[in-house]
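Input sequence (307 aa), recorded before submission:
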Amino acid sequence: MYFPASLPKLLVLATFGAASAFVHFRGRVRHTFGRQLTDHSTFMAPYNALMYMFSAVPSRPFIDVKNFPELAPLQANWHMIRDEGLKLFDEGYIRAAARYNDLGFNSFFKSGWKRFYLKWYDDFLPSARELCPQTAQLLSTMPSVNAAMFALLPPGAKLPLHRDPFAGSLRYHLGLATPNSERCRIIVDGELYYWKDGEAVMFDETYIHRAENQTDSQRLILFCDIERPLSNPIMRAVNRWIGRPMARAAATQNLPGEKVGVLNKLFGYVYQIRLVAKRVKAWNRNVYYVLKWLLLGALVYAIFFRG
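Predicted structure, token format:
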């Protein structure tokens, strides 16, 4: 039986399209079609669809923290974690990236969002072990915590609607020093939660969400990525063997001299192109979008149809 040489590429394209459509229509809140088409979650859609398919926790925006008893010591020790976090803040260590080397959160910095990394996929940052040793030690006893940081949302800050690209983890927030007010909140797939001192919340960050602090007080939390529980041992292995190396490539630094992953090194160069694109967009939005879609179309043609 004869199969056209392009058939494997078309099958890949069809699989990619089906997974992307699933990601787009999952949940009640959606991006516009144009934005979703170029969103990073679309490029991760085939992988994420597998994570959703074999997830051992319910597919909903918020998930009961009681499903993760291994994290209970974090909430039990929240005063200690808060004290180390506030000390970091007072000394100026919780801050935006000094360079274009934090692609995961680069867009947040312009609204005033700040962070201090503790752990990033198996590796604790040297500055974390030195400056907040008790929190780092506590986290080291919890292998399901893939990444952790202190995250600060200043008064008046807003994080726009977005979905995170990687479904191999879930997001855990522990309130440390918060306004304890509904005016300082996160909205995940249309469901509202506001941070409270000493209270933990777990949510699926691949649903579209946004955050805002409409109070006159800072919001400091412990922010963690927790390995998504999966029902199939093969998928658990896939998530660790494939997902973790991808995430480690996005490692960044708190202080000069700490390791920066290859993706963030590349991002520093790619962002220079992005800056040019922003200037074109400011000059003429129509020209910007024509060039953007022509480039995307040429890329799809080169990958799936040429030859």
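Checked by second reader. The two ends are 21 Å apart (CA to CA).
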